[in-house]
Amino acid sequence: MLDLLDYRRRVADMYRAVRELGTDAAEAHVHFRRVRDDLFRSHPESPLDDEQKAAFQGLRYYDYDPAFRVVARVDTEVEPVTYPIELGADGLLTLRLFGRVAFELPTGSGSLGLFWVAGYGGGVFLPFRDATSGRETYGGGRYLLDTIKGADLGSTRDGLVLDFNYAYNPSCHYNPRWVCPLALPESRLALPVPVGEKQWTI
């Protein structure tokens, strides 16, 4: 448990540094990639097993593109939908749709559902699939926000910061010992999002 606490703390510190530098700063993305590689390579709570760690050469990303950073207003006028998700030994996770964000990216217009993780404290969860999923990126989709686990890119008076350069793969992409909630019906984009983390291979 102390290893997990340390891992979560390091992730939270990584995102704090990103927010302080500004997600629109290339050096923030360099820091993000360096810390993630260090955690995957050596931390006891890495998503990788020991054999995978020994062969690890770094996570794969598209080139950084600041045009894929937007500040999106949150529309809370949505029909509430609740999704119970069984996570094996971790029990039942309940996600509740509480809003939507719409945005313009260089590849087109899109919108995504925002989910609240029910339970003590709660948190915002934003997974997504796009036209690269299953081709260049993980078929199950990627995560952009998961504030319970520290993945928080910040907000302004106008809305949430959505910087798709920081899209990352869920742990289940790396090893089947993990069970993850994947992109839901409200989490699908027809357009490609060619930034963020790519599929991982040894």
Brief descriptors of the model:
202 residues; alpha+beta; 6-stranded antiparallel sheet; 3 helices; 21% helix
Give a verbal description of the structure:
There is one protein chain. The protein has helices at 2-21, 26-42, 50-55; strands spanning 69-72, 74-75, 82-86, 92-105, 108-117, 124-128, 142-146, 155-156, 159-163. It has a domain at 60-187. The longest helix has 20 residues, at 2-21. Helix 1 packs antiparallel against helix 2 (26-42). The strands form two sheets. Strands 2, 3, 4, 5, 6 and 7 form a six-stranded antiparallel beta sheet that branches. Strands 1-9-8 form a three-stranded antiparallel beta sheet, with no helix packed on it. It contains three helices and nine strands. A hairpin with a 2-residue loop joins strand 4 (92-105) and strand 5 (108-117). The model has no long low-confidence stretch (mean pLDDT 93). Helix content is 21%, strand content 26%. It has 202 residues and is of the alpha+beta class.
SSE inventory with pairings:
Blueprint: H1 2-21, H2 26-42, H3 50-55, E1 69-72, E2 74-75, E3 82-86, E4 92-105, E5 108-117, E6 124-128, E7 142-146, E8 155-156, E9 159-163
Antiparallel strand pairs: 1-9, 2-4, 3-4, 4-5, 5-6, 6-7, 8-9
Helix pairs in contact: 1-2
How much of the sequence is in beta strands? 25-35%
Shape: globular
From the helix content, strand content and strand pairing, which structural class follows? alpha+beta
Helix content: 10-25%
Terminal CA distance reads: 28 Å
**Number of helical regions:** 3
- Compute the gyration radius: what is it? 16 Å
- Uncertain runs: none
Helix/strand order, N-terminal first: HHHEEEEEEEEE
Query: Can you summarize the main beta sheet?
Result: 6 strands, antiparallel
Number of strands: 9
Overall residue-averaged pLDDT value: 93
